[in-house]
Amino acid sequence: MVEISGARHDEMLDSFAEQNKQEGLRVFVAGGSRPGTDPVYVEEAYNLGRQIIKMDFKLDFGLSNAGIMGAVARGVMDGWNKKQSKDKDYPIQAVTTQEYYDLYPRDDELISQIENLIVAKTLEERKQKLLDADFVVFAPGGVGTLDELAYDCVAMQDGFLQPKPFILYNINGYFHHLLEYMKSLAQEGFSDPIPFIVAENSDEVGIVFRLLKLRYKKGSTPAEAYANTRQLIYELPYFIKKKVNSSIFVEHIIEEMERITKEGSEEEKAELAKEIETAYLEKEIERMYERLAKTGRDTSIVSDKLTKLKKRKASK
Prior knowledge:
Shape: globular
Number of strands: 7
Strand order of the largest sheet: 4-3-2-1-5-6-7
Helix content: 55-70%
Radius of gyration: 21 Å
C-alpha cells in the first residue's frame, strides 16, 4: 500500500481547506426515485443528506422529490436550515431535463426550495454535468441508478472522466451482488478493477467523508488516483474500529497515526501497521460471512422455484 508521509498529509489538508473555503466539495448522489420495501433505506438516505451538510459539502443530484433521492435532499435541507448563516451558500444543485422537470408540481415542498437548477438539453448532458462533482455516492436504486453507475465507470475507465472516488452506500447489503459481479468482470478480463469505497451505514459514510476531506488527494494520473483510493479503502476499517463513539474524532486518529509515522519507535510503527492490516482483514471476513449468508438465501430461493417448476411440469 502507498505510505502517506507527514508532508504529503499537510499538503492534502491545505489543498482541501482551500477548496472548501472557495466553494465546498461537491457530492453527486445517484439513487432511486422510489423508497424501497424496507424503511431503513429512506432513513439512511436522509442521514446521508445530514452527513453531507455536516461536512459543509454540497449536494449535486438529478432532482427528485421522492424515494431515496428525495430523502437525501431533505436531509441536506433540514441540516442546512438548522445551521444556516449568512456565509453559508445554498447547499443543493439539481440537474435535470425539461421532460423530467415537467413531471413535478411547482408547488411541491421540496422542489420549490431548489434554487440552483440546471436544465440540460439531453440525458447525456445531464450526466456529464453531474459528474463535475468531486466524488460520487451510489445509493440503493433501480435501473436508472445502475445506468448511472455503469456510465460513470465506463467514463472513468476510458479516460473521459477524471478519476475520482466512487462510494457504494451499501445499506442492508444492497450492492452485494453488484460488487461480486463487478469483481468477476475484472477477474475475467472484461474490465479494469474499480476501487469502490463501501460504506454500510451513515456513520461509516461520515468517516469516509471526513477521510476524503482530510486525506484524499486527486492523483495527477489515473494510476495515482487509483492508488490513493485503494489506500483509503485499506485504512477505512481501522478508522471505523477506532472511532468507537462520538467523543473520538477522525482528526485525532490521523494525528496519532502521523505522530507514530514521524516520531514513533520501530515497534510502534510495526504495531500500527499490524492494527491497520488486522482491521482490514476483519472487515473483509465479516463481509464474506454476510455474502455467504446472502448466497445461502439466494440458493434457498432458487431451490424453492425449482421445486415449483418441477411440480408444474409434472402436472402437465
